[in-house]
Amino acid sequence: MNEARTNAVSLEQQVGPLAGNKVVEMGGIGPAPFAGMMLADLGAEVVRFARPATTQLLRPPPEADFLSRNKFSLTVDAKSEAGHKLIHAAISAADVLIEGYRPGVMESLGLGPEVFAEANPGLVYGRATGWGQTGPLAGKAGHDINYIALNGILDAIGHRGDRPVPPLNLVADYGGGGMLLTVGILAALFERASSGKGQTVDAAMVEGASLLFAAVRGLAAAGLWRPNRGTNILDSGAHFYDTYETADAKFIAVGCLEQTFYVEFLARLDIDSGELGNRKDPSTWDGAREKVAAVIATRTQDEWVQHFEGSDACVTPVLDMTSAAQHPHPIARRSFVEVGGQPQPAPAPRLSNHPEADVHPCSSDGNAIRELLGTWGLADHVIQEGIPTE
């Protein structure tokens, strides 16, 4: 596993295609810190203004807060005079602002986009919300499960005849929220290079998740997707795209969608395709699944991994998080980095001019943050009052 340096991020270590871009991240959870991590991994200078301690479920300790890597973090009360001046000055000097609050919160703090229209016309103001900045639900609370419930995604996930299953909080929070916000910010920065003008990015998780669902909606529109969950090719309905339990109570994943791969899969199982019927006919899938499951249950996961080694049958073991980081493929590609003894996903995607981005723990060193904000052009007295010397 790639051993990343364990020292906290410093001013000299900010490298990457976004080096020199100054980003203010308002403390929060979910998509905003994820977008901040993406920008920091790409070399931007990200200063996170964390809110004073709040009660949150699933709040990791600093050493396990992977979304804060490569950032500078400082706890600041935006409602205090000194804290407000510091945040206002930092945003006025920044290239990008990231916030994930409900609509109107930043405005109530006197930090809305209109405040910086003249003071910082090039500012890209990134806003991530569940429902968007407008609309009848804009001010309502919600989480990933609510957003994908409303846009039709959750209804499509789960086994036939069973209740919908939330896919963790990956679809709306991170894919439809954090990734969408990052794309919007990068697009705004690209346009600013020629126009000189910033803009506000309205990233709604409910809409970003819907974008991820576009291909499935297309299949449904073409009559190639049935409305009942667990009855389609990609939702565990088909026996050739599902998971199977092995003899040691572990699982393998099978994804042989194409005919060539399916033929190889059955050959490796020593099953005559004629026994399973026409695989294009959904009425044959349940019977075929039973026969495939019976064969797979005769060997352990490791035995099946060895048996399918070198094949194109699209069979992989279902690994837990620990085993996933120890698999030969991510080890060969250095897909995980180890910081403070903890493996975490390496920055992605890979860029040829920056083949291996560094990963460093978040820095909360007041002196380093004072030095950084000084390079942003903030007045000394604003920095000193907002970040008292320890």
Question: Can you characterise this structure?
Answer:
- The protein is an alpha/beta fold and about 400 residues long.
- The protein folds into 2 domains: about 260 residues, Crotonobetainyl-coa:carnitine coa-transferase, domain 1 (Rossmann fold); about 90 residues, 2-Layer Sandwich (formyl-coa transferase, domain 3).
- Helix content is about 35%, strand content about 15%.
- The protein is built from 14 helices and 12 strands.
- The strands form 3 sheets. It has a 6-stranded parallel sheet, sandwiched between helices. A 3-stranded mixed sheet has the order 1-11-12.
- The longest helix has 26 residues.
- The protein is elongated, with a radius of gyration of 25 Å.
- The number of distinct structural domains comes to 2
Top CATH class of the largest domain? Alpha Beta
Number of helices: 14
Using the coordinates shown, work out and report the CATH topology of the largest domain: Rossmann fold
Category by helix and strand content: alpha/beta
The order of strands across the largest sheet is: 4-3-2-5-6-7
Low-confidence stretches: 2-7
Q: What value does the Rg take, in angstroms?
A: 25 Å
The percentage helix is 25-40%
Give the SSE order as H and E letters: EEHEEHEHEHHEHHEEHHHEHHEEHH
The shape, in one word, is: elongated
CATH-scheme architecture of the largest domain: 3-Layer(aba) Sandwich
- End-to-end Cα distance, whole Å, is 37 Å
Q: What is the mean predicted local confidence, pLDDT?
A: 93
Oligomer state of the chains in this structure: single chain
- Strand content of the residues, in percent? 5-15%
Number of strands: 12
Largest sheet: 6 strands, parallel
CATH homology-level superfamily of the largest domain: Crotonobetainyl-coa:carnitine coa-transferase, domain 1
